[in-house]
Amino acid sequence: MAQERDGAAASDVKNVKNANDIKVIANVGTGTMGHAIALQFALAGYQTRLVGRSEASLDRGMARIRADAETFADAGLLHEGESVDDVLARITPVVGYEEGVTDADFVIESVAENLEVKQDVWREIERFAPEDAIFATNTSGLSPTAIQSVLKHPARFVVAHFWNPAQLMPLVEVVPGAHTDPHVVDVTFDLMNLIGKKPAKIKKESLGFVGNRLQMAVLREEFHIIQEGIADAATVDDVMKYSLGRRWNLVGPVASIDLGGLDVFYNISTYLFDDMDNGTGPSPLLAEKVKEGNLGAKTGRGFFSWQGEDGKRVIEQRDKALLRALKEDAAAAGK
Prior knowledge:
This protein is of the alpha/beta class. The chain contains 13 helices and eight strands. 48% of the residues lie in helices and 12% in strands. Helix 1 packs across helix 2 (55-74).
């Protein structure tokens, strides 16, 4: 049984391990993001504990992990000579924090996107985790400063924001809170590299970090275009997919305007910014969809219909394309 750490002395982040010394991962959460992150660490060779609230949630999580691991195997993305069972053998399902986080070097949490829930979870984790363990939350936009405020040793707390689907998307945003030690940011960044991700080291926290701020800025203008009758949702998406989406995947937006000429984009901005949506509240169009209960794939309809085989086909095509991109990334890295 682990000893509770309520009376522990102040943690010294100088004792926090370097990325190469991290061996044991505690992954708290078994849902959409949690199971995928656990798989990512196991694929990279780490002993991983999948920490859940019940045997039922662990069973569901392990079933999803096996299904995703089989997809990786079919795509040729497992290490040479490894099987799905070899990968799953590195994941230990555990009920409860005491057994789950004891002796872990790195603890990552993917529970409900609710500040109070996350604070409660981290209070419990801190009672049992080693003093030299790094704490990481997979929040997609909550303040790391607010979450770490309930910890006795906030310096070792950081955001490691994976993007959904976490097993297929390369990006992980590494974001410090106000009290996070820079060494913890560096170690987390290095660890994300070691598991095959493409980490982005964010200098300071902001609501939504970087990725979600960019996403919401684009969506705000897309909603405006649809509402103004300039184009429908399918057309707006096609414009993005077959122009900016393709180009930005190769050369980012800022580098793209360097290539196009900053004077050209300055001249466009002198007249276009004034005509674009600059609202500060939720889009009325989005609010209407939510009020109607049309929430997207989860309810079968949003801006598009997700019912039947057509909806499944879009998701399958997306995931196959992401798998192909992962194989290309691995080949480019010589793995």
